[in-house]
Amino acid sequence: MKNIAILGASGSIGQQAIDVIERHPEHFNLVGLTVGRRVDDAVAIATRLNPKIVSVQYEEDVARFSHLDVKVVYGDEGLKEVATAAHNDLALNALVGSVGLSPTIAAIENGIDIALANKETLVVAGELVMAHAKKYGVNILPVDSEHAAIFQCLNGEDQRQIKKITITASGGSFRDLTRDQLEHVTVEDALNHPNWSMGQKITIDSATMMNKGFEVIEAKWLFDLEIEQIDTILHKESIIHSMVEFVDTSVMAQLGTPDMRMPIQYAFTYPNRIEHDAPALNLAEVAQLNFKKMDLERYKCLKYAYDALKIGGTMPVVLNAVNEVAVAKFLNNEIGFLDIERLIEEEMNAHEVIQQPTLEQILAVDHHYKTKEYEV
Ligand code: NAD
Ligand code: MG
Fold first, then answer.
1. Which residues of the chain are under the pLDDT cut of 70?
2. Which residues place a Cβ less than 5 A from the ion ligand 2?
3. Full-prediction pTM beyond 0.90?
4. What per-residue confidence (pLDDT) applies to 162?
5. In ligand 1, which atom is closest to the CA atom of 99?
6. 270 within some domain
7. Any idea what DSSP says for residue 57?
8. Where along the chain is NADPH bound (predicted)?
9. Domain C-terminal end among 127, 142, 157
10. How does DSSP assign 160-215, residue by residue?
11. Ligand 2 mean position, distance from CA 296 (Å)
């Protein structure tokens, strides 16, 4: 029986993780969960699964659990408390944004393995988080489908024999539009992802291709690769989740229907596998798999992510923080779709990089760019 805490249980990944747990009560026990605003969801989950601890974002929501036998905490401290809950074998970090960093660090320092969906953690502090995980002997198990794919392809392989990895990209909701057409797209259009149903922020990140940029950075730290070893390719069917080429030119890929419950479940059972009742992949039905070279001029956010990774230090923190703010403004109809990349480019150009930043410096830069007044 594995004891699991879920940070962000009401989100897209969080809900699918709850589904995985409820389908396999003989394997998994939910010990703790956190939600943001969706307190009703947390009350419902706590009633069904009887966790020991729940965290909500706001103190006024604590009373909503008074009829249940559960410890209730709140705010940023609450996130850390759930991440480190007693008897917790594994914490799934399914928070969105760099708010996921501090609870990840807290879990690591308590020797708790992490199933990591929250890619922003590795974007802003990948080097530090991986070094910390090594120091405390903690596994960081990737949930992002591309990284879960690479992780599976690397099972039993010698890291030194990797030539390169190729991360596949569906292309997001605007994959068939030109840059001119992008100028006037709406929030509704952007939220209409062709293959995956996900939270709003990552759906916009997929449309700008920033999501792929984040995944390049995530891969760098998870698999200890050089930037030149990380390639991306457009693959609109989202069937091949990513691949690894070895020094002898052999390529290993992981395939499956687009269903995040598979990588979530694998992170929960690693290194074992258990049944998963999603529809099996039927390649005869899929019939065709398409690929197209990635275009860094068309997808500027991906280029900015490569740039930020090359520059290093606090630049990826800026990339992420300005992106978080810009995406929120776009979702709020305050700025246009292409203003997202404009804002990021401007702020990256003006940023004075701190190399080898400490956690405090990372958090300070993150806070600065999240709270700054932007002129758009
Ligand atoms: P989501 O928006 O659906 O859910 C996010 C969760 O985080 C919610 O429970 C929300 O309440 C919580 N949250 C957000 N801000 C918070 C705060 N300040 N304090 C406390 N809780 C807070 O997002 P999602 O789509 O589930 O994505 C979660 C993470 O997983 C992201 O980093 C995303 O990039 C990554 N990811 C998601 C998918 C997917 O299919 N959805 C796939 C791969 C990776
Ligand atoms: Mg992904």
1. none
2. 144-146
3. yes
4. 98
5. 18
6. no
7. S
8. 11-13, 36-37, 118, 120, 199
9. 142
10. GGEEEEEEEE---TTTT--HHHHTT--HHHHT--SS----HHHHHHHHHTHHHHHH
11. 18
263 domain-assigned: no
**Angle 331-333-335 (CA atoms, 0-180°, nearest 5)?**
100
**Atom number, ligand 1, closest to the C-alpha of residue 13:** 26
**Spacing, Cα 139 to ligand 2 middle (Å):** 19
Which residues belong to the annotated binding site for NADPH?
11-13, 36-37, 118, 120, 199
**Residue 6's Cα: distance from chain center in Å?**
14
Total structural domains within the chain: 3
pLDDT of residue 329: 98
Residue 125 has what pLDDT?
98
**Is the distance from CB of 57 to CB of 7 less than 8 angstroms?**
no
Return the closest-CA partner of residue 201 out of 68, 100, 69, 63. Answer: 100
Query: Do residues 339 and 289 both lie within one domain?
Result: no
Same domain, 127 and 189: no
Residues 358 and 376 in one domain: yes
Give the distance (Å) from ligand 2 centre to CA of residue 12.
13
CATH of the domain at 36: 3.40.50.720
> Do 18 and 134 belong to one domain?
yes
Q: Give the ligand at the shortest distance from the Cα of 209.
A: 2
Residue whose Cα lies nearest atom 17 of ligand 1: it is 36
Of 297, 325, 353, the one marking the end of a domain is: 297
**Protein residues with CB under 6 Å of any ligand 1 atom:** 8, 10-14, 34-36, 57, 79, 94-97, 99, 117-120, 144, 196, 198-199, 201-202, 260
pLDDT at 193: 86
pLDDT reported for residue 326: 98
Residue 241 CB-density burial (10 A; 0-12 exposed, 13-18 middle, 19+ buried): buried
Structural domain includes residue 269: no
Same-domain pairing of 285 and 169: yes
pLDDT in tens, 10-56: 999 999 999 999 999 999 999 999 999 999 999 999 999 999 999 99
**% of the chain at pLDDT higher than 70:** 100
- Full residue range of the structural domain in which residue 187 is found: 147-258+281-297
Q: Which ligand is in closest contact with the Cα of 117?
A: 1
Which CATH number do you get for residue 358? 1.10.1740.10
Q: Is residue 336 part of a domain?
A: yes
- For residue 238, the ligand closest to its alpha carbon is 2
